[in-house]
């Protein structure tokens, strides 16, 4: 937060019901989280209703009119205070899901153990959650591990409890549309000011409850340009292995948030720096550990290009991104097997299958993406086969565009690879006949041998590409 966004904080030392209640509700948080409510009135913060989606405002007003308390909460409040424009808006209320459903025709209830209401306006979904309790008072008997998290069946709570079960202090602020104030129960405003991510309560306990919080720390630090409190970083090495118990589908969603929302490169660097990369992308961490500079360049440029596309509002696909992250291991395995005398095509195919299978145990990449990844990889050796029929076949391959973008990222592997990329760049711009005339009927050694005639022959005339680019690449 820019200094001055919250110009001064009027502290309202309203104690929770009783100290005893607080202790009972959350014995761990008791030590760290301060049970002090601060109310920041409208004139002392910069949240304007202009920046809140109409749908979220309608939900808040409707709940208020019906006599319930309802607040904007979580990342949206945090991002609004930082001057950002949140994409998703979450609402917390004391109405139960059934009560919410009665108020909104466009509402559906989701979730098995903890039920949530989704209020739908066109393509916008406002998630409305009933204040959640910590459930500590009921002992451990009703706890379950779901998707790697320790969860409890529906336990409704107070707003104070709801604040304490959130992950970071900056994520536990509530915007009250009835008086436009911000309610801060755990010191989130201070952390925003200090640009730090601090867990609510004891980090080890909170990570054990839900190991994904470790990834969220890294992701949010990257997204917000915050540091993680040292006490929040310290347990990573010991607790990182708990990520293997998290549902791979959840880690897929989390990976998309890390890498495909505009701050992928920063997230990647943060994951590496925190030592978390190996727990979710073991093959990537292994390949990088072998000290491969070209691979690092490929990954960093791939992520950089993807971030640029996101910021320009262009589409991006997970397939390209995962192809980038796993390339090093696929390539090295394929090379090992080919040098052992195995058939090249078969080695590539087996390497791809092997690496994808291993990765999917951690991060469930849906099949439609793994198919594309395998195509992108298997087309790579074909770029080196400069022979008339093969070149034209490759140019019309549905995955040509993505595979070509991938080839460009490989420029750092060797000067020859860089030239190969340029050759294909020119080849696409040449009229069919010129390209055909420049190409040998049979394979003429390396691609680079035949690159020269194309570049120095008839000046490459710019003309429309012969065919529409196939598929989205995420990298151009
Ligand atoms: P983003 O900018 O990615 O949306 P976010 O903080 O809003 O960040 P969400 O996944 O949208 O992340 O979650 C909304 C809110 O729910 C968080 O701000 C936090 O208060 C709470 N929350 C989310 N995940 C967890 C978790 N694993 N443990 C505790 N609280 C969580
Ligand atoms: Mg959010």
Identify the notable features of this structure and list them briefly.
single chain, 476 residues, alpha+beta, Beta Polymerase, domain 2, cca-adding enzyme, domain 2, nine-stranded mixed β-sheet, two-stranded antiparallel sheet, 24 helices, 50% helix, 12% strand, elongated, disordered N terminus, disordered C terminus, binds adenosine-5'-triphosphate, binds magnesium ion
Beta fraction = 5-15%
Give the overall average pLDDT. Answer: 85
End-to-end Cα distance, whole Å, is 33 Å
Contiguous uncertain segments of 5+ residues: 1-31, 137-141, 446-476
CATH topology of the largest domain: Beta Polymerase, domain 2
Number of strands: 13
The domain count comes to 3
Radius of gyration: 27 Å
- By helix and strand content, what is the structural category? alpha+beta
Second rung of CATH, namely the architecture of the largest domain: 2-Layer Sandwich
- Tally of helical segments: 24
Could you state the CATH homologous superfamily of the largest domain?
Beta Polymerase, domain 2
CATH class of the largest domain: Alpha Beta
Shape: elongated
Largest sheet: 9 strands, mixed
Instruction: Please give the order of strands in the largest beta sheet.
Output: 1-2-11-10-3-4-7-6-5
So what's the oligomer here?
single chain
- Helix percentage: 40-55%
């Amino acid at each position: 937060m820019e200094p001055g966004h919250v110009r001064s904080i009027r502290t309202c030392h309203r104690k929770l019901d009783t100290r005893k209640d607080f202790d009972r509700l959350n014995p761990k948080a008791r030590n760290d989280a301060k049970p002090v409510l601060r109310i920041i009135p409208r004139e002392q913060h910069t949240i304007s209703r202009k920046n809140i989606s109409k749908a979220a405002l309608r939900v808040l007003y409707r709940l208020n009119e019906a006599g319930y308390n309802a607040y904007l909460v979580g990342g949206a409040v945090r991002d609004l205070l930082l001057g950002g424009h949140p994409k998703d808006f979450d609402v917390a209320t004391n109405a139960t899901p059934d009560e919410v459903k009665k108020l909104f025709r466009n509402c559906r209830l989701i979730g098995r153990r903890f039920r949530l209401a989704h209020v739908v306006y066109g393509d916008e979904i406002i998630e409305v959650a009933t204040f959640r309790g910590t459930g500590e008072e009921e002992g451990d008997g009703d706890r379950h591990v779901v998707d790697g998290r320790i969860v409890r069946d529906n336990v409704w709570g107070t707003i104070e409890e709801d604040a304490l079960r959130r992950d970071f202090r900056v994520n536990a602020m509530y915007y009250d549309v009835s008086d436009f104030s911000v309610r801060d129960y755990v010191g989130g405003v201070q952390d925003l000011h200090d640009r730090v991510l601090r867990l609510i309560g004891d980090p080890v306990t909170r990570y054990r409850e839900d190991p994904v919080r470790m990834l969220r720390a890294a992701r949010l630090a990257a997204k917000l340009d915050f540091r993680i409190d040292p006490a929040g970083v310290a347990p990573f090495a010991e607790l990182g292995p708990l990520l293997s118990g998290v549902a791979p589908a959840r880690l897929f969603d989390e990976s998309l948030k890390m890498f495909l929302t505009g701050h992928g490169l920063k997230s990647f660097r943060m994951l590496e720096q925190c030592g978390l990369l190996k727990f979710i992308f073991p093959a990537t961490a292994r390949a990088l550990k072998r000290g491969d500079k070209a691979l690092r360049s490929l990954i960093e440029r791939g992520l950089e290009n993807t971030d640029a596309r996101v910021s320009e509002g262009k589409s991006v696909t997970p397939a390209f991104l995962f192809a980038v992250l796993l390339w090093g291991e696929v390539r090295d395995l394929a090379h090992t097997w080919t040098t052992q005398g195995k058939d090249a095509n078969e080695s590539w195919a087996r390497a791809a299958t092997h690496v994808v299978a291993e990765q999917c145990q951690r991060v469930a990449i849906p099949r439609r993406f793994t198919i594309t990844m395998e195509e992108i990889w298997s087309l790579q050796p074909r770029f080196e086969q400069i022979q008339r029929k093969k070149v034209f076949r490759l140019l019309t391959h549905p995955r040509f565009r993505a595979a070509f973008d991938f080839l460009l990222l490989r420029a750092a592997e060797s000067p020859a690879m860089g030239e190969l990329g340029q050759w294909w760049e020119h080849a696409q711009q040449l009229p069919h006949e010129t390209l055909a005339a420049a190409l040998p009927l049979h394979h003429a050694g390396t691609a680079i041998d035949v690159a020269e005639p194309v570049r120095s022959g008839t000046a490459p005339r710019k003309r429309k590409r012969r065919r529409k680019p196939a598929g989205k690449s995420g990298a151009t």
